Amino acid sequence: MHSSDHISDASFFDLDGLTKALTLMTSSETDVRELPISLPQLGLGESQVLDLLAPQVLGTAAQLGASTSMAHMDPPTPWITWAMQLWNASLNQNLLHEATSPFAARAEKLVLDWLAPFFGMRGGHFCSGSTIANLTGIWAARDVAGIRQVVTSQAAHLSIEKACHLLGIKLVKIAVDAQGRLDTTQLPDLKNSCLVLNAGTTATGAIDSLALCGAAAWTHIDAAWAGPLRLSPEYAERLNGIENADSIAVSAHKWLFQPKDSALIMFRDLESANKAISFGGSYLAKPNIGVQGSRSAAAIPLLATLLAWGQNGLAQRLNHLMQAADSFAQKIEEADELELWNKPQTAVNVFRPRHISTTELLAALPAGMLSSCVIDGEIWARSVAANPMADVELIFTKIIATCRK
Ligand SMILES: *Cc1c(COP(=O)(O)O)cnc(C)c1O
C-alpha cells in the first residue's frame, strides 16, 4: 500500500500523473520536440516531462505487435506484464536481500519450480538475459566440473565467446552442417570440455543434436530462443535430450513474452552449482548467487503471465507462431521470386530474393518487417516469428510486390 500520509514529496507518488501516463499510451500525439542538450538546471515537473517524452518514447518506437513486425526475437509484451513492471518499479524490491523482497523471492522460486521440470532441471535463478545466463552456466562448468575448454558450433551466440574470454577458458568452434547444426562428426574428445549446444541458434533457429547432452564433462544448452517450446506438448519433443544437460539458459524476454531484462539459468544439480557460483558478504543474510548483485523482481511479470495464460495459453501462442513460420516458409518455397535457405526449425525463416539483391529487398521494406543474417559470407533475409499479431499473408504480399518492382 502506498500510504500517502507518509509522503509529502509528490514526485514519489501521484495517481493522476500515472493515469496521464497511461492515457498518453493510446494518444497519437506526434509533435516531437527537441530535448535539452545539456542537463537542465531547473526541473520541468513530471507532467511536462510526460508531454515532452511521449512523442519520443512512444511515438518513434518500433511496434513489435504490429501486423508487419516479424524481424527479431523481441516479442510484444502482454499488458499484464506492464502492470507488474509498474508495481515492481514502485516497490524496487531487491532479490539480493530477501528481507526486502519476501514475495518476490517466493515468486522466483515458484516460477522456477514450475518451469525447471520441463527441462529436467532442479531449479536456478533469474538474470538479466541469456548473455549472463550463458556466462553463469559456463562459470559453473568450470568450477564444478573443472572443464578446461568450451566446445560449441560456429553458429553459437557471441555471448559464448564473451563468457570464455571473461572466464579465461579456451574456445573451440566446430563447423555446422547444411542445416546450421553443429557437425557432430567433427567433435574433439570431450573429456575436459564443456559442450555448449544451441536449442535455436540466433541466425537460423537451428537445434543442435541434443542427444549429445551428457557426452561431455558438462553440457550447457543455450536455449535462449527456443527453450519455451518445452512447454508446448506439440513441439516439446524437438528439444528431447535437453533433460540430460547440466545447465540451460532461456531468455524470458524472447519466447516467454516478457519485458526486458528477464532470463533464466537452470541447473540439474542445483546444489553443487549454487555452491560454486555463490559469494558471501558480511552484510548479506544469504550468499549472493550468480553474476549479478542487486536483482529485480523479474519473476513477478512472468508469474502473472503464466497465471493469466496457463501452460495452454502459452503453448497456443507458441504453436501459432511455429505454424505461422511454417506457412511463411511454404509460401517462400512456392514463389519463383524467392529462395528458401532451409525449412524453419524454430520459427526462424532464412531466405533471399532471386532477381534483386537481399540488400535492395531489405531497404525497400518497412523497418521491423525483416532482419538479415550472414551465412557462409552471404547475406540472407531473416524473419523471426515472435509476434502473435503478425500477418504472414500481408508480409509475404509486400515482399513479393517489392521483388517484382
Ligand atoms: C538472444 C540470444 C542470446 C543472448 O540473450 P540475451 O537475452 O540477449 O542476453 C544468447 N543465445 C542465443 C541463441 C540467443 O538467441
From TrEMBL:
Protein name per its UniProtKB record: Aspartate aminotransferase family protein
Organism the protein comes from: Undibacterium macrobrachii
Keyword list, A-Z: Lyase, Pyridoxal phosphate
Cofactor(s) recorded in Swiss-Prot or TrEMBL: pyridoxal 5'-phosphate
Pfam families from the UniProt entry: Pyridoxal_deC
Presence of the UniProt keyword DNA-binding in the record: no
Organismal lineage: Bacteria, Pseudomonadati, Pseudomonadota, Betaproteobacteria, Burkholderiales
Protein family: Belongs to the group II decarboxylase family.
